Amino acid sequence: MTVDNSFFAAKLLGWFRENGRELPWRGTKDPYAIWLSEIILQQTQVRQGWDYWLRFMRRWPTVEALAAATEDEVLRMWQGLGYYSRARNLHFAARQIVEMGGFPTTYEEIKKLKGVGDYTAAAIGSIAFGLPVAVVDGNVYRLLSRHFGIATPINTTQGKREFTALAQALLPGSEASAYNQALMDFGATVCTPQSPRCPECPLQASCVAFAEGRVGQLPVKERKLQVKERRMAYVYIRYEGQTALRRRGAGDIWQGLWEPFLLIDNGQLTIDNDANYQLSIINCQLLKQHVRHVLTHRVILCDFYLWEPRERPHLPDAYVWVDETDVDQYALPRLVELLLEALPQR
Question: Among 38, 229, 308, 341, which one carries the catalytic annotation?
Answer without folding.
Answer: 38
